[in-house]
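Anyone up for a design puzzle?
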């Protein structure tokens, strides 16, 4: 087991992402490229970074100073809850509107309106549950 967003944990997420055609292949179909950072509310910088090229995660680990296209923040408890139970489209919308999930970078509203991105994004939360977490 590893700490949420640690180097080891992020590498596990990379493996789960690349093994899931509903995430990797669907994003490859639209040529999705992005640097995605995750972390905790109230901290100066993210904890983990996830680099996606044409739908495939090519690098993941502890945050390395890369300028993210997306920077998502929540409390550790909320992240763990979403990882354990998943989050649907409605839950994701509620998390955003209530401020439980903050986007310091990235256009959540544009992403959620595009089903080609929204579906894999929601599915990626379920992948988090596959990584053993402290």
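Challenge accepted. My sequence:
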């Amino acid at each position: 087991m590893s700490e949420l967003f640690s180097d080891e944990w992020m590498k596990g997420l990379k493996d789960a992402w690349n093994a899931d055609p509903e995430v990797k292949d669907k994003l490859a179909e639209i040529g999705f490229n992005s640097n995605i950072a995750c972390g905790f509310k109230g901290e100066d910088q993210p904890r983990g970074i996830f680099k996606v090229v044409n739908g495939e995660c090519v690098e993941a680990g502890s945050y390395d100073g890369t300028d993210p296209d997306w920077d998502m923040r929540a409390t550790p408890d909320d992240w763990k809850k979403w990882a354990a139970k998943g989050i649907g489209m409605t839950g994701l919308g509620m998390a955003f509107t209530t401020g439980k999930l903050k986007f310091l970078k990235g256009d959540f509203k544009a992403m959620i309106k595009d089903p080609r991105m929204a579906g894999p994004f929601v599915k990626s939360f379920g992948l988090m549950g596959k990584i053993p977490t402290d």
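A detail worth pointing out: The radius of gyration is 13 Å.
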